[in-house]
Specification:
The protein has 159 residues and is an all-alpha fold. Helix content is 40%, strand content 0%.
Amino acid sequence: VRMPPFTKMFLAYQDQSFDIPDRTFHSTNTTWRLSSYESMTDVKELIPEFFYLPEFLVNREGFDFGIRQNGERVNHVNLPPWARNDPRLFILIHRQALESDHVSQTICHWIDLVFGYKQKGKASVQAINVFHPATYFGMDVSAVEDPVQRRALETMIKT
């Protein structure tokens, strides 16, 4: 969202305006906390840019993302202390972690969750990897007769 052409794509998706400042990605710590254990509905995964593109964390174009309810202006992404406020160091450490022996030995479990047999069915329940049916490929929205429910499903799928 902080760098072209992604900004243009984001604005097109959001009816030509930035999202509510409090919902805008502004802090790795806050996003980690919410998606890891505080909110069961805030589901996120790291996009590839976290491993190669430090520029996506910096608002070099000076976009006005607004002011959060706590009075803080949304600008550059706040990084964890170990990154020393350096997006390049942040990306480097992420890349090193991705290439580590631990990740090499365990990434197969993530692949099973996202692409493999733990996506659906009993294995997904046992792995606590169950989501609303509308989030899965193959949801037949046209089969929903109630127009309100159909619109709700279409909106859920779109967003």
